[in-house]
Design goal:
single chain, alpha/beta, Rossmann fold, 3-stranded parallel beta sheet, two-stranded antiparallel ribbon, binds NADP nicotinamide-adenine-dinucleotide phosphate
Length: 235
């Protein structure tokens, strides 16, 4: 924004839900009243996916689909109905082309944008959908996942390296990852070494759900967060 202003542009901010057709029309009207015309639109609103479908509620998935499906339809109608608009650029993702593990809803939402661009009717403003790869360090791909420590719990830590036997021979799309069965080993070690069980005690694991793959492309800190319930079970 600072660079645009330094180059002589004027930047104004209007907040609106891209899924709300009336609110977006209000933004267009305000811009046309001030500047005379809207020449182009970049659709950059989006919500990242967050886990395998098995772990997602309908509401989670609708939140991801909304901005890119409903929002794209709202903007498509608006640019078609607004004289002078020359282009609509949709910020899609490479996830639409080759999928994204743990983000099927996000991949589908972006594929919808691509389909809208491909199906632009003759005479409509030029509509392109850009399949961006991840932008390093910024935006939704640069966000650090937040895994807070459980209250009163303990943390067991280890470091996994790409050449550890646990991961070296298990690869997905060329990247080493922790296979599902190895999570059991990690949990048993974490509980034993945190004092939850003696070496010869059996450890019973219930309700294990793997929500996303753990890729190990460089030495990676792994933390198992443990809390002990009143009944002596560890979570
Ligand atoms: N970052 C990447 O590496 C990458 C790669 C490929 C494609 N893309 C695409 O590029 C676009 C921008 O990405 P980003 O990294 O800048 O994302 P971001 O930092 O997560 O920002 C997305 C923005 O969209 C807004 N938003 C979500 N739903 C909305 C709605 N219904 N109406 C209005 N605004 C809404 C969010 O507002 P709130 O904060 O108020 O929720 C947020 O400001 C996204 O469409 C994304 O899918 C990004």
């Amino acid at each position: 924004v600072a660079a645009l202003e330094a180059a002589g542009a004027e930047v104004t901010l209007h907040a609106a839900d891209v899924c709300d057709a009336a609110a977006m029309r209000g933004v267009f009207d305000a811009l046309r009243a001030r500047y005379g015309a809207v020449h182009g639109v970049l659709h950059t609103a989006g919500v990242a996916g967050g886990g395998l479908l098995r772990t997602r509620s309908r509401a989670d998935m609708e939140a991801v689909l909304a901005a890119k499906v409903t929002g794209t339809l709202v903007l498509r109608e608006l640019v078609a109905a607004t004289p002078g608009v020359r282009f609509l650029t949709l910020f899609s993702s490479r996830a639409a082309l080759n999928g994204l593990l743990g983000s099927a809803d996000y991949a589908a939402a972006n594929a919808f944008m691509d389909a809208v661009a491909i199906g632009t009717p003759p005479g409509a403003p030029v509509t392109v959908s850009v399949n961006w790869p991840a932008w390093h360090g910024i935006g939704m791909a640069g966000a650090t996942p937040d895994h807070p420590a459980p209250d009163g719990g303990t943390h067991w830590r280890t470091v996994l390296a790409p050449d550890d036997w646990l991961v070296a021979e298990h690869r997905l799309q060329g990247r080493a990852l922790l296979p599902g069965a190895a999570y059991f080993d990690l949990l048993v070690r974490a509980v034993r070494e945190s004092g939850g069980a003696d070496d010869l005690d059996p450890v019973v694991i219930e309700d294990l759900m793997l929500s996303e793959p753990l890729f190990v492309t460089e030495p990676t800190d792994v933390t198992v967060a443990l809390t002990e319930s009143a009944e002596g079970a560890w979570h």
